[in-house]
TrEMBL record:
Enzymatic class: lyase
Pfam entry (one): FumaraseC_C
UniProt GO molecular function: aspartate ammonia-lyase activity
Keyword DNA-binding recorded: no
Key word DNA-binding present: no
GO biological process: aspartate metabolic process; tricarboxylic acid cycle
GO cellular component terms listed in the entry, alphabetical order: cytosol
Name of the protein: Aspartate ammonia-lyase
Organism for this UniProt entry: Microbacterium ginsengisoli
Superkingdom classification of source: Bacteria
EC number: 4.3.1.1
Ranges for domain Fumarase C C-terminal: 417-467
Residues of the Fumarate lyase N-terminal domain: 21-350
InterPro entries (UniProt xref): Aspartate_Ammonia-Lyase (IPR051546), Fumarase/histidase_N (IPR024083), Fumarase_C_C (IPR018951), Fumarate_lyase_CS (IPR020557), Fumarate_lyase_fam (IPR000362), Fumarate_lyase_N (IPR022761), L-Aspartase-like (IPR008948)
Amino acid sequence: MATDATTHTHTRTETDSLGSMEIPGHAYWGIHTARALENFPVAKRPISVYPDLVTALAMVKQASARANADIGVLDPAKADLIDRAAQRVIDGDFHDQFVVGVIQGGAGTSTNMNANEVITNIALELAGRERGDYAFLSPIDDTNRSQSTNDVYPTAVKIGLSLTLRSLLDELANLRQSFLDKAVEFHDVLKVGRTQLQDAVPMTLGQEFHGFATTLGEDYNRLRENAFLMYEINMGATAIGTGITTHPGYAAAVLHHLREITGLDLATADDLVESTSDTGAFMSFSASLKRNAVKLSKICNDLRLLSSGPQAGLGEINLPARQAGSSIMPGKVNPVIPEVVNQVAFSVVGADMTVTMAVEAGQLQLNAFEPVIAHSIFQSLTWMRQAMWTLRVNCVEGITANRDRLGAMVGASVGVITALTPYIGYAAAAALAKTALMTGRNVADLVVEAGLMSRDEVTKQLSPARLSGLQTITAAIPVIAPEDAPVPPVG
């Protein structure tokens, strides 16, 4: 041990093939991590911002230690130390020691070595040894036994993404349920539906919110289906898929332990050479996230439109007031929660393009750009999960309907005449619609005055249940030929 004159902290000397460096005495990471910190001051975000990735790395190291002990290539006492050290990381300890940047060259080697060094030094302390005593337990010869970055890193990324996806799916299910609850609350609130931003036909606000819930349910299913893409791993492939330096029984042994540790239905790829070079599964997984993000953004666009105003816009619903909306306009409140979700969606779309380009850029037996693939997808998952939470808690749960305004809009809407076309004919309906628009008069009154239907018949057909399709028409409808339909005068 030496003392750093600047920081007055103890340091230790570590050596690799490039030379020696002084490592802070308090650090569990070592020289390979130190070089990465010098070489990649890019994102300024350590891999520990994705706790599930750190946990997954520890799971891979733990499974490898057990597998190596099973097949007899690692001393059982050393394997036990590595196993126990990895468990500490899985339990959430030492995550702050995973310090290499999320963006790095080397196809993830720095991340793998960061894990090797941290777990080794935890194990050394468990054995009563000093950190850096690699003659007793080596990060490479022992903790990384039978492994390469090229099978450890993609396997850990897939496991980490699977763990993070679980929490996102939980939040997505909660958000879907929140929309379903609003659908029930608004089941009897009639409104004007719109196509191409123009008035169309009536519906209920409950139907609109039920549609939001349904589309989120579809995304839930698609994301679960794509989760299985992450279950094919290439442990045992080592450098390029040929399994060089590994025992013939290692791949099966490490798979057994990884399945037990993670609880995931993992499987070893049939072709390890192909699996080591191909990152297409990440592209498909990212695409399913993009789909979810785009559809969620569309819902947020609708919420902003429906709540626009409150006086000069649609003003159909009220979003919870979360904060003052302007530094100059008193009383202004903006739809800040849907807006932040929109921005998350834009980021996810961009991240998906990054993943696509990184997958395409792979060369020969390895894709060197897996770090940016991992970072992009982990960020998308993390941001989406948090966006869903804030949308549910800070927005959807507090939405209210402007029932009086909605009722007035439906009453004045010429769109309701569509429900009467089977009875009075299209030509008559079109003429009456034009009259209603020109005069501002109620459609039902015009139909009755024209002698086309009785008041009772009009009231029945324009009931909320009929207009929204909640109650279907079961009786036969008389067909009116265009030439027989009476056409009332316009004006």
